[in-house]
Amino acid sequence: IKDVAALAGGSPSTVSRTCKNNPSISEETKERVRRAMAELGYEPNFQASNLAAQISRSIGIILPPSPKETYENSFYLETIRGISHYCNAHQYISTIVTGQNEEEILNAVRSMSRSGKVDGFIVLYSRVNDPVVDFLFSEGLLYILIGKPAQYTNHTIYIDNDNLLAGQEATEYLYALGHRKIAYLGVDNSLVFSADRKTGYMTALISHGLTVQPEYCIEVPAASQNEFQELRKLLLSEERPTAVLVSDDILALSLERICIEADISIPEDLSILSFNNSLFARLTSPQLTSIDINSGQLGMEAATQMISHIENPSLPATKIIVPHQLIERDSCRRI
Fold first, then answer.
1. Helix (H), strand (E) at residue 265
2. Among the four 61, 138, 181, 258, which has the fewest Cβ within 10 Å?
């Protein structure tokens, strides 16, 4: 700041106020200071200035508890990218909160909230009976969910897709291709998005007079090798499905691997339609037909609402639905 002030012919306080676009500084002086900043390659350190002013402009981003799988899922990376992009543009700091279990995350959230160094939390998931959300709500802390809330619905700000509709439309797409034996592969049903996608799948089948067969609905807690015995059994049975709707691209990769091991050809023997339209969907062979849920937009909308509610605390709780889109590739065929 002193170097910029010397070059611009002003004081350090003038430089500081120019950085904050203070109206007390004339446009002529601001322009002179900005030219000096550009010449010297100076960029304001907003984090330092906020700390110096003892003003918290920080948002915690809470990932679901997981020892490993969360960090391999591009949904979270894309969502964080959307949050960070908006926060950076509005001079807010974002901090990742993670842990191997709920207690570890709770301890981190308690510590951050009691230190007063965070203005609010964005929770990147929605789970039934979540103690982290219970704590945030009971403490009166500002938080936003990415996903439909399972509790405190009327008091919760949330950003989501219409996952029930997306599951229904995905199943309708497979039905229109001639498939009548359609299975569903999802993650733990305590995660609200997977439960909604499954409900949409079931709704579409029933609307066409098809029976929802329990053995066609398989849920696994994590995409690990040991969790797929039930799926292998179904794919090797005489009544195996001709198509599978999968709640996540990573799960679809596991399904593809099992198909290779069982000599099941995609899409000739089995059509696969998944969710998220991640990089994984484009790297597989054949490439996956997938529902794009606009992960980055979910993150940007969450950050937008968070900053709006920080700066205008009297705003009512809002909900925003981000549209989805089916991306057709090579993993589905007409029969």
1. none
2. 138
